[in-house]
Design brief:
4-stranded antiparallel beta sheet; about 190 residues; 9 helices; globular; about 50% helix; Jelly Rolls
Length: about 190
């Protein structure tokens, strides 16, 4: 709970009463390694704050090839946000790589928090802005850099990921084969 409060207060200050009311809009859930938080084709009920553990957001193309869109670890938010905000069915799956504990925010509770607390509306706006920037940086990286450069960027940005994720998953995230990743990491 302190971790979550610190996460919010990095953007907006809160009183104890405000935090308690905000926290009451979330539910705590625990998932095991390989469990789905979101499954493609199902409704997306929650946005997730990762308390502990590691998840991957995966898109399966028409040929069944799995593309890792993102990883999310402690203090990160994740969901199929397109489906969450439009209340439609998931285009992607969110899967635990490790045993994971999350705080779940239902769509209606998200709107209640934004309507009730200007501070939380500002918090979510800032988190959304950071997410947009990160997504654009990832797209530009995929468009303008080679595999070796993408590997070096990821190693610099998220070194802990290399200790927690298999080379096969890293390769899928970077858009290279497992063999190419082995050459890059040698």
């Amino acid at each position: 709970m302190n971790q979550f409060r610190e996460h919010i207060e990095a953007i907006v200050p809160l009183t104890d009463a405000e935090f308690e009311l905000i926290y009451s809009h979330f539910s705590v859930r625990k998932y095991k390694k390989h469990q789905f938080l979101i499954q493609e084709g199902e409704p997306v009920k929650y946005a997730y704050f990762i308390v502990s553990g590691l998840v991957k957001l995966v898109y399966a193309d028409a040929l069944g090839k799995q593309h890792i869109v993102s990883f999310a670890m402690e203090d990160w938010w994740e969901s199929d946000f397109g489906a969450y905000y439009t209340q439609s069915k998931a285009a992607m799956s969110l899967i635990c790589i490790e045993d994971t504990e999350v705080l779940c925010l239902a769509f209606d509770d998200y709107h209640k928090l934004c309507a009730t607390f200007h501070k939380m509306e500002h918090f979510f706006l800032m988190k959304s802005n950071f997410g947009h920037v990160g997504a654009q940086q990832r797209i530009l990286s995929l468009l303008t850099t080679n595999a070796k450069e993408r590997y070096a960027q990821l190693l610099k940005k998220s070194p802990a990921l290399f200790q927690r994720v298999s080379k096969t998953m890293l390769a899928a995230y970077l858009g290279v084969s497992r063999e190419t990743l082995s050459r890059l990491s040698a």
